[in-house]
Amino acid sequence: MFTTKNVTGDQRMESCVTSIQMNLFVHFALIPAVLITLFLSYLQRRTRPHIIDDKLPLEQRFGITVPVNFLSSYSNRWSYSAAWGATASTMFLLFFDEYSNYFDFSAPPWARAFVYLLSALEVGMDYYPFFACLATTHKLIGSVLGFLYALSWFCVQVVDLFQCPKNSPDSWMTYNKLMPLPSLICSLFLMGRFIHIFVKRMVACRRAEHIEEEEPFLVHHQFNHVKLLLRRKCDRDDMKKLSILQRIYNWDPNFKFPLRMIITVVLCLICLYNFILADFYLSPKAMKKLHSWILRTVNLSHVNSTNRILFILKDTWFYSTFPAVLYCVIYIFHLLACYRKQMRALWEGKMKFIPLKRTPAIVAASIRYTGNQVAYLMWGYLVLHILHFLFGLLITFWLVLPIKEGRGMQVLQGFGYTLLGIVLLLLVIVVQVVAAQFFFLQDKISPSDRNKPLAINNRRAFHNFSYFFMFYSVILGFGICLLRLILSLLLGSWFLAKIDRSLFPRGYERIDVGYCTWIGMLRMDLHHTHPVVLVFCHLLIQERDVKRQQKASEVTTPTDFLQVGKKQRCSAKWQLMYTLLNNPQLIMDRKQSNSLFPVGQEALECQILSTVHVRNRKQCVQNKE
Q1: Which of 129, 131, 207, 432 is the most buried (most CB within 10 A)?
Q2: In a 3-state reduction of DSSP, which class is residue 115?
Q3: pLDDT tens digits for 146-168?
Q4: What b/e readout covers 80-103, taking b as 16+ CB neighbours within 10 angstroms?
Q5: Are 25 and 31 in contact (CB under 8 A)?
Q6: Is 149 in contact with 129 (CB distance < 8 Å)?
Q7: Which of 38, 90, 88, 83 is nearest to 64 (CA)?
Q8: Any idea what the Cα angle at residue 481 is, between residues 475 and 487, rounded to 5°?
Q9: What is the pLDDT of residues 342-358, one digit of tens each?
């Protein structure tokens, strides 16, 4: 990865000495990053004048540059995802607290949180030009600066990556070359994107073509979604007939995932890749340390059995990696399906599954969603790996080893007893349900009813049945409670990374911070990307523009201008009359030459009294009605 000194410690320093000090490059990269940001800010004009414009001739320059539009952007999704992918290796270092080692000063324990914050801010500033050059409206300058800055980072990372000797005994060299590969590929894609933008702008300048700089207010797929809503329901139902492949994933041309979700998926995949490589590197070292510790503490007569147990632990940990990885990858893509399903439900007004939160908390949750999702996925993979590892050990020591040692009948006998107890529990529950269906419930009121009414028949038999099963229900409840506890632990560990569903029961969703983060992101996207609202606002904007054009076309001659001015003056006088009648105390503040009322204290008092009398009469009439 980026660092050579801090990843593996002193052993790495002895086996690999590089001429590029990555910690110094990270710090000095702030200089061009700040300069590029200031230059792009200088090109960005502010929409509103400021007080400083009167003191300095800035011409409303030095506007705020926007790196990424997380609210309502659907364009350049893969370019921004590549830019975030280029930062994934550094983000992975932040996850393991390696990036803070670039700071040479030693901080006390209470100040470590500030060091983490400083590290995150420096990383954000180092990579800020990637996004600012993509988002700027000055595409020609932004593409040149972005390409040069991305090229400098790419070259330094590649040189730092391949400076170590090939015959190094440290196996970390292999993983150190594999880890940054996704980020380097994203950097190459980003440089190619900058070249494409530069060529496109140069061709447009030669042909004198105009290229739309800003993203349109209403995106095409949102307009098509509203058109589909205006169709008849039978036509929409005909379009929903799905084939077998579409039942696995139904592609909707009228729905596009926003930029935030694509960035989240790319970051999750790259960070998961790095986490798996780190797992493959660190787990053998942990096993070696465990083996050496056991040899120092265990009696030599038990060395063979100890080695066999260590071999089982090593293989079980290795093979348990694959189901954990498979589940995490499936979940990453399932995340998109859950987002689309819940956003459609929110568009239809189905908000029962959303806990109510204050608007500042919703905005804060939306801000931290992407970073939290990556961290939850890393922890979810680790917990899943440990869970599958324990499950593999359970199968090995309870099933595989006894069978290999000739104790297969004992295993089968124990399995049969366990299965018999489970079958008996289920059989009792089934008997209770069948008895309730055929003996204790009254018949259907109507033959077309789906279920019987909840009305008890044969009450004496019901009371006796409940009495005798009361004693067995204690034993049954003990087993079911234990099963509930085990299932809660398994499902809680299994769905730790799935923040689209709460781990807590209904009514306690607010305790789940991850779920509240997901809900905050959904509500922010709902309020800023609702297709019906956007189409409505688009129609209002179009109507406003049409009225402005009509007014501009009507005022073409001096006589027309006089007529329009006369109408405006009449309207202004009428509004003035209405305001003064309702607020007579304003009469004294007007100029006498333009006053519509006689000026004076007595006249003002008369006017106030008359206004009060009129209002009282109106209230009396309304009360009588």
Answers
A1: 129
A2: helix
A3: 999 999 989 888 887 777 554 44
A4: bbbbbbbbbbbbbbbbeebbbebe
A5: no
A6: yes
A7: 38
A8: 140
A9: 888 888 888 777 776 77
